[in-house]
Specification:
Blueprint lengths: L6 E4 L1 H4 L6 H6 L3 E3 L10 E7 L5 E7 L3 E5 L2 E2 H4 L5 H13 L5 E4 H9 L10 E5 L4 H14 L5 E6 L5 E3 H10 L3 E4 L4 E4 L1 H6 L4
Parallel strand pairs: 8-9
Antiparallel strand pairs: 1-2, 1-5, 2-3, 3-4, 6-7, 7-8, 9-10, 11-12
Amino acid sequence: MFSRHDLVWLTPAGWDTAPALTEWRKQDWPAIVRRRDAGVGADAVCLGIPLPERQRVALVVDARHIARSAPPLTLADAIAAAPPQWLAGLVALQRAAEALDVRVYGSLAMASITGLPYLRAGSDIDLLARPTTRSEFAAAVALLEEHAQVLPLDGEIVFPSGDAVAWKEWIAARRDHARVLVKSLHTVRLADPAQLFSSLPA
């Protein structure tokens, strides 16, 4: 089973569905799992390839043509691709997040994987925090909020179910007693933050 933002490497038959992406295929770079399109069969996986020119290529591939997969990069995996002005802050974040599962996606991850110029002056650092308990959830939110004071952090908190909420929206919703937008592999919906939080083990 795949999750949004997972990295997947295609077999030769899988790449045959995207003949225009010859360089991507040649370098054996991964595609990214995205939300499923409506009407896609159960054996298909919806993928995306974000290009440095801010274009996105959407693919739908039979699951048989996925050679291997991996979760998004860790901070340790991606930090070498960061520009100098982020390094001290990312090292501090990495140390503070050692007890949590924090992953990197978006432009920093793609720069790390490919070496291509994804990062620009206004780029964010997209992070996925994946807590498994309420205490880890609270720690992840506090960590992201604290380190966003010195780094351009963005991203999501992902529940064990695969439901994901933008962490900045979560903070605002709890303050304003509002619902949050929840994204999963299959749907997008609004939900009550308290109900989502209660779904985590204590």
